[in-house]
Design a protein that fits this description.
The complex is a heterodimer.
Chain A lengths: L2 H4 L4 H5 L16 H19 L7 H26 L5 H19 L40 H37 L1 H16 L2 H11 L4 H28 L2 H8 L4 H37 L11 H6 L5 H4 L2 H28 L7
Chain B lengths: L19 E14 L2 E14 L3 E5 L6 H9 L8 E9 L2 E2 L5 H7 L4 E4 L13 H13 L3 H14 L5 H5 L8 H13 L5 E5 L7 H18 L2 E6 L2 H5 L4 E6 L2 E7 H6 L4 H8 L50 E3 L3 E6 L11
Parallel strand pairs in B: 3-8, 3-9, 6-7, 7-8
Antiparallel strand pairs in B: 1-2, 1-4, 4-5, 9-10, 10-12, 11-12
Classes of the chains: A mainly alpha, B alpha/beta.
């Protein structure tokens, strides 16, 4: 997912003339001191959280947050100094986070993690342990002594597979329908518009709950239900960007060379429509991660004890959140970071591939 | 009375008759819009021999491009368009052909060059793919032979280092180079007829000349007929055997380029000629523009379409639509549609 943004696979990107970078550090680059000072302070704060403030609860968390902010300040100042002022540390961190969470989810069985769902394995583990990076349970445990780090990573498997799968389904089906609607216009377009509008008229959560009552809560079924949520916007996106390309002369040129409708749609339009669709897909993934979490939170998605971010958050019901906030904060942070990263990268990609900004 | 010196005229006589390729007979293309029926082409007839070039000149909205696309069969009678009249291409009525037959005609027997090379190429497809796709479809060539032929074609249209260019994307080339690629695409299957719809409008003047010269050279080599559509008389003058001036969906005057420049009989052609800026004029002379705007083609005037803007218009011009016909003194090949033609004494 992340290489979509890093590698300019799009030929149009290379068309933009690169601005010559002056050899001397240009004005506006931060001084070395402005980078190093927060960085050192951040490292100090991090060490403070790990050793003297170990296990102090909210104080530890606050100092940890402070150290993260300081590290980010120092890192982005140093990065701008080294790679020019277009360097955006946040974007890179988003890409790194997604890469780490995806890799961890794929490699989960190989990682030295604690137990994530078998209660019989955790009888002598501490219950509701606070997050402490220097113990066996870096992110703590839940009320059954199950390791939260392991549950977050196994939960990522479910959440990511379901939401990425749903986006792929929506991308293929919605893309095909949208391109056909934008290409043929007239009756096809009218029919498709009515169908997408009716789908959009149903409140998404109601639709999901209705589907969940009919379908078994298995991964493919949840992915299918979520894909219905993403479908209308995909169709609209594909249709809109098809419309901008279909009136360009290369489509008429293709027709004047004897190309069939299918060929025009697949060879001329699809490659142009795909880039904006993929970047939009990134944003939709984040919406679906939240939707899947809501479903699991309501008990309609992935069923406990199998972990998903949504049903992990649901464990904080009752008084648990007040007494043991980490039960909710740890999976909540995972959802927040992942959604934020997908949004940031999707937005970056969208800006680059937006059909309204295509010039060639 | 002699025209612009920079324009060379092609001798009309002396070419052997190579037989008729295209006959356009009273073609009318009506586009149904929300505001009414727009008569984009309203009764156009002409013929074109093999290897011949006809220039179609007219201002924006005069129906030139619609005529080109109607001839090609890209516009067919359907919910949005009605076409009457006949377009006989190589003995077959284009409008009566089915989609399959049309597709085997397009790109193979009739090629089309588009106005804007910036949009006529797909930005995400390599130059090589643009060319090989049509070669493989129409000539059934394999991957490698099609590539060889594509390189030959790029060489033919004067693109240096064609092999390297095959793997480039359109944005890596200049406008002139891209137009050469568009021409190479149109010529890939050696069509009998090439419709060039404003092929040089989007290019700058020096490149315009190169592209027009290239079209002329290729015509001599491949022997195809060309319909050269342009709003620029200067573009058409040096290259076309015959020129047809279009106004509001109708041909108002057609003759060989030399006699048009020597003495246009239709006031519109005359006004067009006068609107060409000339180098020998003193600086800051007001450009001789034509007053007014072309008529609304949903409700065109009853009589001569040009009458509202014509300096010579009389009562009959506003009542009776003049037919395209020859005059006794200018010979059978010089046709014009005017009740009160100009330049008759000194033609």
């Amino acid at each position: 997912m992340s290489d979509l943004v890093q590698a300019p696979a799009d030929p149009g990107a290379a068309a933009v003339p690169t601005v010559a970078e002056p050899a001397a550090p240009p004005t506006g680059t931060p001084s070395l001191l402005r980078g190093l000072l927060p960085l050192v302070a951040g490292v100090v704060a991090l060490v403070v959280t790990l050793v003297p403030l170990r296990g102090q609860g909210w104080t530890t968390a606050a100092v940890f947050l402070l150290s993260v902010v300081l590290l980010h300040l120092g890192g982005s100042a140093l990065g701008r100094r080294r790679w020019g002022k277009d360097f955006d540390l946040t974007t890179w961190l988003c890409a790194v986070w997604l890469a780490v969470i995806v890799l961890a989810a794929i490699l989960a069985p190989l990682l030295p993690l604690g137990e994530e769902q078998d209660l019989s394995q955790t009888l002598d583990e501490p219950v509701m342990a606070r997050p402490d990076p220097l113990t066996n349970h870096p992110l703590g445990t839940n009320n059954f002594g199950l390791d939260l780090l392991a549950r977050v990573i196994y939960g990522a498997r479910a959440s990511l597979v379901v939401s990425i799968g749903a986006v792929l389904i929506a991308l293929v089906v919605g893309g095909a329908i949208g391109i056909a609607a934008g290409y043929f216009r007239k009756l096809t377009d009218a029919t498709v518009s009515i169908l997408t509008n009716s789908l959009l008229a149903i409140p998404p959560l109601i639709l999901l709950i209705a589907l969940a009552t009919v379908l078994d809560p298995t991964l493919p079924n949840i992915a299918f239900a979520l894909s219905l949520m993403a479908l209308p916007s995909m169709v609209r996106m594909a249709r809109a960007s098809t419309l901008t390309f279909v009136q360009r002369e290369f489509v008429l040129a293709g027709k004047a060379m004897g190309a069939t409708h299918l060929r025009l749609m697949v060879r001329e339009l699809l490659p142009n429509v795909l880039l904006p669709l993929l970047s939009y897909g990134m944003i939709i993934v984040s919406v679906l991660i939240v939707a899947e979490s809501s479903l699991s939170f309501l008990g309609l998605g992935i069923q406990a004890p199998e972990p998903s971010w949504g049903n992990m958050i649901a464990e904080g019901e009752g008084n648990t959140f007040e007494e043991h906030p980490h039960i909710v904060l740890v999976p909540g942070a995972a959802v927040f970071l992942t959604v934020f990263a997908f949004n940031m990268l999707g937005e970056k990609a969208r800006k680059r591939f937006d059909p309204r900004q295509a010039k060639i | 009375m002699t025209s612009n010196q920079t324009l060379e005229t092609v001798p009309d006589s002396g070419r052997p008759d190579r037989g008729q390729l295209l006959a356009v007979e009273d073609v009318r293309t009506t586009i149904h819009t929300a505001r009414g029926d727009l008569k984009a082409v309203d009764g156009v007839s002409f013929t074109l021999d093999r290897g011949e070039t006809i220039g179609i000149v007219g201002e924006s909205g005069s129906g030139k491009s619609v005529l080109g696309r109607t001839i090609m069969g890209l516009h067919t009678t359907g919910p949005t368009t009605t076409i009457s009249g006949r377009v006989m291409f190589d003995g077959r009525d284009v409008q009566s052909l089915g989609v399959k037959e049309l597709r085997s005609l397009w790109g193979a027997r009739i090629g089309m060059v588009f106005q804007d090379p910036m949009t006529a190429l797909n930005p995400v497809k390599k130059i090589g793919t643009h060319l090989t796709e049509t070669l493989r479809k129409h000539q059934g060539l394999g991957r490698q032979p099609a590539r060889e032929r594509a390189a030959e074609l790029l060489d033919l249209v004067g693109i240096p280092d064609p092999r390297r260019r095959l793997d480039q994307y359109p944005h890596e080339m200049s406008g002139g180079m891209r137009q050469r690629v568009v021409i190479a695409m149109a010529l890939a299957n050696e069509p009998a007829l090439l419709i060039a719809d404003e092929p040089t409008t989007a290019l700058d003047v020096t490149v315009q000349r190169q592209i027009l010269d290239l079209l002329g050279t290729l015509q001599d080599e491949l022997g195809m007929a060309i319909i050269l559509i342009s709003h620029n008389l200067g573009v058409v003058a040096g290259r076309a055997d015959r020129v047809a001036v279009m106004y509001a969906g109708r041909i108002v005057e057609t003759t060989d380029a030399r006699s048009l420049f020597a003495g246009a009989h239709h006031p519109y052609s005359e006004a067009l000629l006068r609107a060409i800026p000339r180098l020998q004029e003193p600086p800051h002379v007001r450009l001789a523009a034509i007053d007014g705007a072309p008529p609304n083609m949903i409700t065109p005037p009853i009589g001569c379409r040009f009458a509202p803007r014509c300096a010579y218009a009389q009562d009959d011009c506003r009542q009776v639509l003049p037919e395209l016909r020859p005059s006794s003194e200018s010979g059978p090949r010089h046709l014009f549609a005017c009740h009160h033609p100009v330049n008759r004494g000194d033609a």
